[in-house]
Specification:
By secondary structure, this protein is an alpha/beta fold. The chain has two domains: 363 residues, no CATH class; 225 residues, 3-Layer(aba) Sandwich (Rossmann fold), CATH 3.40.50. Helices cover 59% and strands 7% of the residues. The chain is built from 28 helices and eleven strands. The strands form three sheets. The protein has a six-stranded parallel sheet, sandwiched between helices. It is elongated and about 100 Å long. One of its GO terms (molecular function) is acyltransferase activity, transferring groups other than amino-acyl groups. It comes from Pararhizobium polonicum.
Length: 683
């Protein structure tokens, strides 16, 4: 097929936004659509090659796979090799184990399945620190390369018209599945080939339309294609369901350019400039390099790297891309190295041997839970705090909006009890207190029951912006409130991440510790059909008002309420922060964040709670234990490697919970003493 400079230019349109998006430039919030453009280009080029060779009756499946191996594997293996020393030196054990598994998956052309399997989860690590995360798209293309030629060979005998109709039908089915999946199984939808196939097949259909020397030319349509791609780059963001019908916009843009940006059009001239073609030529290498470079920069840095550093690294990736294109890609495809492996058997055999070596390395890297022996003792001790949360979190932190629970759930009750008049309710911040609370209450022969739900404030009548939990919170806490009414519950301990749901923003400690969390906010359930805004003052005011009203309702109905004020957030993953400092040779592992930052974050909630006045209200202020206690004007995160108060960037470890739980126990004991008339108590 005839070389088209504008297609290489289109590659640059695809790769540049991807790189800038992964570098963290918010302006390029839809830069991920570059992958979809790559899919269309790949579908077009591969199908064009197959058609041309079939028309000449010299298509060979073995030679096809040889060309793909020469194109994809040498530089991929080289990038993997370059990652190994940095992984050894800088990665925490969990990161190393995940990286090692990804090496195995990459070599087996299945990394999209791995990342689908490992993605998500309420406490999932930041994807930005996975060096091989981007290879999911490479795996999708490789799966296409494996299956599509066989599909064409099978249907070619029935004629080109039947073949095109079959391709179009499969593409349509894949698109409809992607739209359905974007709502019903979003994570799988993103990674799996059956919901991405239509993008590749859109390129295949372009190849059928441009068979032989047939060309179409239209300035209007090709410019429109470029325009909708640019629109997608800046208009889409990580809240855009993808892939779905939204993906039609950039895919259609790529199709219009492939079909109508023939030589002489304005679009072809723009895409055929030397810089655009140059970047397009090295786009595969650039795509391979950028994610490992960015990920290792984030892994190495104690806080989020600055945008200046990420900009410099993006430029450095261009240099690496040129070098690997010049000295690895090109020689293996058509240079002297290609002559050393002249036959399909040799190139495929050699590739299999190298892949087997990397797979062996992957199994080794995944052993010993990520080669923990590499780390100094203090780093290992700090990281142990990531697991320092009671298994009760897995049992009593619900996740699916359950409403018909068999109350009381035995494992969420103090061991000595058959029932309890005291219940701890809330979200994951309540669940983080639960294990220590159950142990402490049990040791003092006091009943306690725990019920919590991920990402839900502990009242009915709210919905959360997170799509996963949007419809789960209201029914769960409606069920809990029904239980409270019918069971004779007398005392409620309320612990929630109150301020997050009001403000909506991930916590930023102002010192480089920025929580990796999508904006999460709540609004009243009867407004679920309205377009709530995170920064809408009216929404924040009514949420605060409803907080107070719901607490007041319990108090007025005769319940005692132990109200746990906001727990200080850390911003950085504390065990990892301590461990990385220890790995850097730092011996003073006492870390804290600004108390002023805590006050700014929580002032609205604290002010609202302070307005509540009732004799049945008991207040517990976690800031009294963490802030201005160990360090003046600071909220402590850790004292040393053995005393780390958080298991991530905002949830208390059992060590941290031990600072708060005694106050809960004291409040409940005071309530019991008052009810028996043994002692006067001031709430």
């Amino acid at each position: 097929m005839k070389y088209r400079r504008e297609i290489d230019g289109l590659r640059s349109v695809a790769v540049i936004p991807v790189v800038l998006f992964h570098a963290g430039f918010q302006l390029f919030s839809g830069g991920f659509i570059g992958v979809d453009i790559f899919f269309v280009i790949s579908g077009y080029l591969i199908t064009s090659i197959i058609i041309a060779e079939r028309d000449k009756d010299n298509f060979s499946l073995l030679k096809f796979y040889e060309r793909r191996a020469r194109r994809i594997l040498p530089v991929l293996f080289f990038v993997l090799l370059c990652c190994l020393p940095f992984a050894w030196a800088w990665m925490l054990p969990g990161q190393m184990a995940s990286f090692a598994r990804s090496i195995i998956a990459v070599c087996l052309f299945g990394s999209n399945f791995l990342f689908w399997h490992e993605s998500g989860g309420y406490f999932a690590a930041a994807s930005e620190q996975q060096p091989l995360l981007h290879t999911w798209s490479l795996a999708v293309e490789e799966q296409y390369y494996m299956l599509f030629p066989l599909f064409m060979m099978l249907l070619w005998r029935f004629g080109r018209r039947i073949l095109i109709a079959a391709v179009a039908a499969v593409a349509l089915a894949s698109l409809l599945l992607a739209q359905y999946g974007s709502v019903n199984f979003a994570t799988a939808n993103f990674y799996l080939p059956n919901t991405r196939a239509w993008e590749l097949l859109a390129g295949s259909l372009c190849a059928f339309l441009l068979t032989g020397e047939r060309r179409y030319k239209s300035n209007i349509l090709s410019l429109a294609g470029l325009a909708v791609i640019v629109f997608s780059i800046f208009a889409y963001d990580d809240a855009t369901p993808f892939p779905s019908l939204y993906a039609l916009v950039p895919v259609l843009g790529a199709v219009l350019i492939i079909l109508f940006a023939s030589e002489g059009t304005v679009t072809a001239q723009l895409l055929s400039t030397r810089p655009m073609v140059g970047i397009g030529l090295v786009s595969y290498s650039l795509y391979l390099w950028h994610q490992p470079v960015f990920a290792f920069a984030r892994i190495r840095s104690l806080t989020d790297p600055s945008m200046i550093l990420m900009s410099l690294l993006a430029v450095a990736c261009l240099g690496l891309a040129y070098l690997s294109w010049r000295f690895i890609e090109t020689p293996f495809r058509k240079g002297s190295t290609a002559h050393l492996l002249p036959t399909p058997a040799r190139i495929l055999g050699s590739s299999a041997v190298v892949a087997a070596l990397f797979i062996s390395i992957g199994f080794y890297g995944a052993s010993d839970n990520g080669l923990q022996f590499r780390l100094p003792p203090d780093a290992r001790a700090a990281l142990a705090e990531q697991e320092n949360r009671d298994p009760v979190m897995d049992t009593c932190l619900f996740d699916k909006g359950e409403t018909s629970l068999p109350h009381p759930v035995r494992d969420c009750l103090t061991k000595h009890s058959t029932g309890s008049k005291t219940i701890l309710i809330g979200d994951s911040h309540a669940a983080a207190l639960a294990g220590e609370a159950l142990r402490s209450f049990d040791a003092n022969n006091i009943d306690l029951y725990v019920m919590a739900h991920s990402a839900c404030v502990g009242f009915s009548g709210f919905y959360v912006s997170n799509p996963k939990y949007k419809l789960r919170c209201n029914p769960f806490f409606t069920g809990i409130e029904d239980y409270i009414r019918t069971s004779g519950t007398q005392t409620l301990i309320m612990a929630n991440r109150w301020s997050l749901y009001v403000d909506g923003s991930p916590f930023d400690n102002g010192e480089g510790g920025v929580e990796h969390l999508k904006p999460t906010y709540i609004d009243l359930f009867d407004r679920i059909d309205e377009e709530a805004s995170q920064n809408d003052p009216a929404r924040k005011a009514r949420v605060l008002k409803q907080y107070v009203a719901d607490i007041q309702k319990y108090l007025d109905s005769g319940h005692n309420v132990v109200l746990v004020y906001p727990i200080p957030e850390a911003g950085w993953n504390v065990p990892e922060y301590v461990a990385k400092n220890a790995m850097s040779g730092i011996t003073n592992l006492e870390f804290s964040t600004s108390y002023q930052r805590y006050q700014q974050r929580n002032q609205a909630v604290i002010a609202a709670f302070d307005t509540i006045s009732h004799p049945n209200l008991f207040r517990v202020r976690p800031a009294d234990f963490f802030c201005n206690s160990f360090v003046k004007d600071r909220c402590v995160n850790s004292l040393n490697a053995e005393r780390v108060f958080y298991f991530d960037d905002n949830h208390l470890s059992d060590t941290g919970a031990r600072l708060v739980v005694p106050a809960l126990l004291e409040a409940v004991e005071a309530i019991a003493a008052r009810s028996t008339g043994l002692a006067p108590v001031k709430p």
